[in-house]
Task: inverse folding
């Protein structure tokens, strides 16, 4: 990812030992939201605000300053296919588990309400019953959950392959056009 920082804060470079070494610029300075800076060598002056005990009861108010917003321009130029595959696989497995639990709850609700028995009665009252039609035996909980589990496994495989193919296509296209450019702002 490319990074352009509009703020002129000094950066620190890493040396070969992994410790943070100071760059050629001045050391990093902590800044508050209002743009005031504090360095480690110069501690903050004690202020009497808001109580005003040190100046004969006079209340000193800080000067209001507008905060400086930092902006960073980033470019998403490459997606790692293995990373996309792992994340998509885990999300698909979670979706499959949710799907199985949802179907089990819907089947239990339909069974408690008596939908299967009512459909069986409607079919037998119309005269279409040719051999003891029973919807509850056809759509038993085991049969429905087995079908949904197989469907979920297929969905996990297809979604993972589809995401990897999309990531590979994105990598090819981003080499041609430079990727997706995003500007992030600090509020």
Result:
């Amino acid at each position: 990812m490319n990074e352009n920082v509009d703020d002129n804060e000094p950066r620190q470079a890493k040396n070969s030992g992994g410790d943070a070494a100071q760059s050629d610029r001045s050391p990093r300075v902590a800044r508050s939201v209002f743009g005031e800076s504090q360095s480690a060598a110069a501690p903050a002056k004690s202020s009497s605000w808001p109580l005003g005990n040190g100046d004969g009861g006079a209340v000193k108010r800080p000067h209001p300053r507008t905060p400086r917003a930092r902006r960073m321009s980033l470019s998403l130029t490459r997606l790692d296919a293995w990373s996309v595959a792992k994340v998509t696989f885990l999300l698909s497995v979670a979706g499959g588990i949710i799907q199985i639990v949802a179907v089990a709850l819907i089947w239990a609700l339909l069974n408690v309400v008596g939908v299967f028995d009512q459909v069986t009665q409607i079919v037998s009252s119309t005269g279409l019953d040719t051999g003891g039609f029973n919807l509850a035996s056809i759509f038993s909980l085991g049969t429905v959950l087995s079908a949904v589990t197989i469907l979920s496994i297929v969905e996990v495989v297809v979604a993972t392959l589809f995401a990897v193919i999309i990531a590979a296509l994105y990598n090819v296209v981003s080499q041609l056009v430079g990727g997706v450019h995003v500007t992030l702002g600090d509020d």
